[in-house]
Write a structure and sequence with these properties.
alpha+beta, 149 residues, 3 helices
Length: 149
């Protein structure tokens, strides 16, 4: 009985006064991604980073409790990629990969793909006019790391 009364009181409180608004929407981005690693860049001058692209997609739900305060929950799934290549030459990075095999006609290409999932709980502070600030916590999980050659 107490739970029922509390639920009704909470519902009446939420629906009275300022007309709260609820927003639901999608999030997404396409981005240039780079994974810079000192162990890779110092191995040889013949190895190069390749331009790579990643993306993120997700959804959000926000409840504006007043004109200056709200709560938002975000979920995003994303990828972060990096490509590498090496060209043939006298003594280069390919030789070290092939255990000293000096077949100079080979080229080396590889890709690293990181997949992540992020969940954020944010407080929205600010007005309807002008900017606002989002403060909160985010849980991030690296769900996969793939290397291909």
């Amino acid at each position: 009985m107490k739970n029922t009364i509390l639920s009704i009181a909470l519902s009446v409180f939420m629906l009275s006064g300022y007309a709260q608004s609820i927003e639901v929407g999608g999030l997404g981005s396409l981005k240039s991604t780079w994974i810079l690693n000192e162990n890779i860049t110092n191995t040889s001058s013949e190895q190069d980073y390749q331009p790579t692209w990643g993306y993120s997609a997700g959804a959000f739900a926000a409840v504006h409790i007043s004109k200056k305060f709200g709560v938002e929950l975000d979920y995003q799934y994303g990828t972060h990629n990096q490509g590498f290549s090496a060209s043939s030459g006298p003594y280069n990075f390919i030789d070290t990969l092939n255990n000293g095999d000096s077949d100079f006609s080979k080229e080396y290409n590889s890709t690293i793909e990181l997949t992540s999932q992020d969940i954020a709980l944010l407080l929205l502070l600010g007005g309807e006019e002008g900017g606002h600030v989002e403060l909160g916590v985010q849980y991030s999980s690296l769900s996969a790391a793939l290397y291909s050659k």
